[in-house]
Amino acid sequence: MSIRSLRILLGLVLLFSLALVPASPVVAAGTTSLRIVKYAADGITVLSERTLDYTEMESELPVQGDGTTTYYHQGPSFDEGNLWDPDETQNLKTKGAPKGTDLKDLCELVGGMSSGDTVRVTAVDGFNKTFDYANVYDPPPRQGKIVITWYSDRDGYVPTWGDGMLLVFFAETPNDLGQYVFGNEDMRRTLPENRWHYFDIYPSTNGFSVKNIDEIAIFSAVTHDPDPSDRARAELDVSANVVLPEVGLSLNRSAVDYGDVEPGGSSPVVDVGIANIGTRDVLVTLEVQGDDDIAQEFYDQSLYVDGTAYVNNPTIGTIRRAQSRSVDTQLRVPRDWDEEGRQEAVFVFWAEAMD
User: 3-26+245-353 has which fold?
Assistant: First the structure.
């Protein structure tokens, strides 16, 4: 079963006749410290660990980024004839001009990695990405260093910077426009296929942008044999019934019409019920797909989920097996919005199994 087979999509059609306002957006605080741990081959025994905060990362380790160079990842092209977009021009996702610490330097604090080891970078909500030794210790220029960033040129340091600590690839080869992009073609050329990230059928390096990171875990091949004098043996016959995992979501509605809203105004609050109907605990995220560029910009600027601007935190959260959750959605149209007419979009709720 491929990784993508454990992800499902639900679409909620949204209909809207102009409107919305920005009340002070509630922005989540960024993480300020990391637990770095190295496990033995059994994945349980801790060989070494350390916890440090962003001030120690800045003062004790080399700083990556100058606070002026802008880096980009790439979203899906939504073009089946140009899935990888080698020219790196479609759906670029700016990460600003951040500063941070090389993932390699952080790994070295607990004994480092060896060939065959992997490292997992995990956010506070459980979302994570895993990388192999070569991509951390010997990254090709078109990939660049994998950097755990704790400073943004737009918002300053964490915790004020709500997306930090944020994983960013510091690609070293610019595209024809001079932009430093870790694009989808770069992913295909530099990462093993089992590490590629997809949005549905579309490759997307933006999926590597793990936000609010709080743990880095190295899984090594080092064996850890206890002293024989500390061991005893007892046997137990066991059996198990294997049930294939399934991921599933359902929604309590198929469409939402927010009605008429004027610039500077707010729509009624509409709740969306999300139920986990699969057999796995899942992490749910929201992706808004506007019918056109204007609709996309409208919802990016106007949509609030549980009182938080959607663009600042598209993660809905964890929903346990057989549990459900309700989220409040509302449009708050900026006062300077000047495009009149009906704005339509689809809310795509993604569920990804949490292992």
Answer: Immunoglobulin-like (2.60.40)
